Amino acid sequence: xxxxxxxxxxxxxxxxxxxxxxxxxxxxxxxxxxxxxxxxxxxxxxxxxxxxxxxxxxxxxxxxxxxxxxxxxxxxxxxxxxxxxxxxxxxxxxxxxxxxxxxxxxxxxxxxxxxxxxxxxxxxxxxxxxxxxxxxxxxxxxxxxxxxxxxxxxxxxxxxxxxxxxxxxxxxxxxxxxxxxxxxxxxxxxxxxxxx
Length: 196
What we know:
By secondary structure, the chain is mainly β. The chain is 4% helix and 50% strand. It has one helix spanning 70-77; strands spanning 5-9, 13-18, 24-29, 32-38, 40-45, 62-64, 66-67, 86-91, 95-104, 107-116, 123-129, 135-140, 147-151, 156-158, 166-168, 171-175, 180-184, 189-191. A hairpin with a 2-residue loop joins strand 9 and strand 10 (107-116). It is globular and about 50 Å long.
């Protein structure tokens, strides 16, 4: 790809990962294109109640993690190499893995994007070092108009587009006019959906 992006192509999709922000800046699925920062890491203000006992929705005030500078990255990696803040750490016959380091306040995220050489998916794994008070971490996905459903204990259910928190388990599925996107995870999470 060009100098500003890492570009990857899978079966039926392609991704442009920005070297300047560390975020996916374009996701193309078939003919559908999602431009702009996709899957950003955001810290959302919340109350002092760690269980969110009385929280039904959170305010739309958030701060986005930004890419760490090279000096910070080299300090936490502590290797003899001059490491980039977005870099390829594996490129073999099976997959390519890109690592990026993000910071916000006293917290950091080390993200690894794994792009298989075959297949219609990519993986995102996070090591989160969380030191923020009265805030929670959210992964922001800019889905457009469509329908969002989430896995529940025995089935799946439609998630209303009202900004209220809803629990889901193994997956989220967004269905749009020209494509579908699934988010699969290995634990339980909360989700809210508002204006796409």
